UniProtKB/TrEMBL annotation:
GO terms for cellular component: mitochondrion. Its cofactor is Zn(2+). Transmembrane segments: none annotated. PANTHER family: RIBOFLAVIN KINASE, RIBOFLAVIN KINASE/FMN ADENYLYLTRANSFERASE. GO terms for biological process: FMN biosynthetic process; riboflavin biosynthetic process. It catalyses: riboflavin + ATP = FMN + ADP + H(+). InterPro entries: Riboflavin_kinase, Riboflavin_kinase_bac/euk, Riboflavin_kinase_dom_sf. Keywords: ATP-binding, Flavoprotein, FMN, Kinase, Metal-binding, Nucleotide-binding, Transferase, Zinc. This is Riboflavin kinase. Its EC number is 2.7.1.26.
Length: 161
C-alpha cells in the first residue's frame, strides 16, 4: 500500500456499542469525516501503528477498517484499540494515529472466543513489528509533535514522510 505510513487525526466518537470494552478490547471510533478522507488504496482489514490521545504519550495500536453494519455495510468505519490501559474513557478527545503496516484482511469467525483469540494474536504481531527500527522511528515523526486542538474536530490527513 503506497499510502503507508498514513497519518490521521480526529475526535473520538461513540461507536455501535457492540461491547468491545466488555471483551477487554475497547475500540475508539473516528467520525465519518475521517473515514471519508482515507486514500483509495487503504483497504479494509487490520493495521498496526502508533497512537496518542490529545497530547499524551504515544502507544502501540491495532486498527480495524471495516464495513459498518449500522449503515447496512455501505459505510466504512475505523476503530482503534490503543495497546495501553487508560484511567477512563476519552470520548470527545483527539486521537492521532500513524498507520504503519497491514496485518490481515477482515474475516468472519465461528465464535466470539475465536474472534478474541484473533485480536490477541493481532496485538502480539503489532507489538513485535513496531519494535523494528524503521517503525520505531515513526514515533518521533513531527506529526505527533504538532499541538492538538481539542475544541475543533481537526483532521490532518495525508501527512507523508
Ligand atoms: P464504542 O462502541 O463507543 O466504540 P467500546 O466498547 O468500543 O465503545 O469502547 C471504546 C471507548 O473506550 C473509546 O472511545 C475510548 O473512549 C475508551 N477506551 C478506553 N481505553 C481504550 C483503549 N485502550 N483503546 C481504545 N479505546 C479505549
Ligand atoms: Mg468501539
Amino acid at each position: 500500500m503506497r499510502s503507508l505510513p498514513y497519518f490521521c487525526r480526529g475526535q473520538v466518537v461513540r461507536g455501535f456499542g457492540r461491547g468491545s470494552k466488555d471483551l477487554g478490547i475497547p475500540t475508539a471510533n473516528f467520525p465519518e469525516s475521517v473515514v471519508d478522507t482515507l486514500p483509495a488504496d487503504i483497504s479494509t482489514g487490520i493495521y498496526y501503528g502508533w497512537a496518542c490521545v490529545d497530547n499524551g504519550d504515544i502507544h502501540k495500536m491495532v486498527m480495524s477498517i471495516g464495513w459498518n453494519p449500522y449503515y447496512k455495510n455501505t459505510k466504512k468505519s475505523i476503530e482503534t484499540h490503543v495497546i495501553h490501559t487508560f484511567k477512563g474513557d476519552f470520548y470527545g478527545q483527539i486521537l492521532s494515529v500513524a498507520m504503519v503496516g497491514y496485518i490481515r484482511p477482515e474475516r468472519g469467525f465461528e465464535s466470539l472466543d475465536e474472534l478474541i483469540a484473533a485480536i490477541h494474536s493481532d496485538i502480539e504481531e503489532a507489538k513485535i513489528k513496531l519494535d523494528l527500527p524503521e517503525h520505531l522511528k515513526l514515533k518521533e515523526h513531527h506529526f505527533f509533535k504538532t499541538s492538538v486542538s481539542t475544541t475543533a474536530n481537526q483532521i490532518l490527513n495525508g501527512h507523508r514522510l
